[in-house]
Amino acid sequence: MILTECLTITEASGFDRLILRSGNVSGSPFVEALIPPALYRVSHHPTIVACHCEGTGWKFWGDSNLKSKFWGRSIMLEPVGVLTLEFEDGEVFQWSKVTTSIYNLILGKLYCDHYGTMQIKGNREYSCKLKFKEQSIVDRNPHQVHGVVQDKNGKTAATLFGKWNESMQYVNGECSIKGKGQESLSEADLLWKKSKPPKFPTRYNLTRFAITLNELTPDLKEKLPPTDSRLRPDQRYLENGKYEMANSEKLRLEQRQRQ
């Protein structure tokens, strides 16, 4: 249960590397669906995305429809959808993402914040509730997350605390984050810590893991199907900083997609 909670926090931590770059490619990458087009189609407006992946002993899938509200200098994003994580022993956890707001879209330093309550529901013994604290103008300690893991009887099995852009810790049982409970925090166990950025950061602030996802070696190229996204020329141009060529190639691909 605690490790599942850790997964939900790492999803939020990726927003911390957002930057505003010049020469941006218009629109967003299209999604290829390996299913009959007569039955399904990709939705651009509204933006609906879906995912499915499998590993040793687990499966993860979900879909999300993003609702947005523009406030002039900021935009609020409300994800609508459920994410599911299933283990091979039959244990299942489900949750929905919290609200995200991006500020200073026109002037100033661009930054984002996550806030709201996330319920991680399990089909067996434990469930978790995480509260993402909304950042205020005078807040000197932003990005805080507090939560509890409870059994089906409502008893607290673990208390979680930390920051979604830095690290998360936990203590067994119930613990107050304020006042006398601070003494127990010294005995907390580290659950997750954000990896250090690469020594030579890329123009997109990609992590060490993310920067390898588009890697294409000669031996790998021979094994990939022609629909693999790593073969997309517009994506390769974008990665290499050739924005005009990336935009032209992307428009060409989208026009062919509509034919």
Automatic annotation (TrEMBL):
User: Which one Pfam family would you cite for this protein?
Assistant: Oxysterol_BP
Assigned GO CC terms:
cytosol; membrane
Instruction: Identify the domain of life.
Output: Eukaryota
A GO MF annotation of the entry reads: sterol binding
Among Gene3D superfamilies, the record links this protein to:
2.40.160.120
- Matching InterPro entries, A to Z? OSBP_sf, Oxysterol-bd
User: Where is the segment annotated Disordered?
Assistant: 220-259
What protein am I looking at? Oxysterol-binding protein
